Amino acid sequence: MEAGAEEAIVPALWGQDTFIQKAGGSEVIGQMWAFPDKKGRPCCLIPEATALFQERSKELLGQQTERMLFYVARCYRYERPQAGRYREFSQLGFEYLCPDPQRAQPAQPGDRGGLSGFVRTALRTRQHGSTRS
Has residue 72 got a pLDDT over 70? Predict the structure, then answer.
């Protein structure tokens, strides 16, 4: 990809604990489509994707010094229908992972197409049906 980011495939179903820990007292907790799986473990349809990357950042980074990932995730929130808010929506995200977030050097506009170049490339990749296994 010309922006240097790899596509991450985000699961739609995940353990509730991730979102409870990351959201704290947030409204997301009350808006999760939550239920037990066949073994009785609490799981949910993901209400947002950022928490997954926060939880798994060390695994995703591995031995690399930095890694850029993008995703288009389907997310679900159980809430009263209202104008402009949907129970199912898509979240386009970009995650820059490095061992020391305080020293992260985010791309500047103009670097390899900048963020606008990244978004155009990501959308073009998704439109053409490109997926990674």
Answer: yes
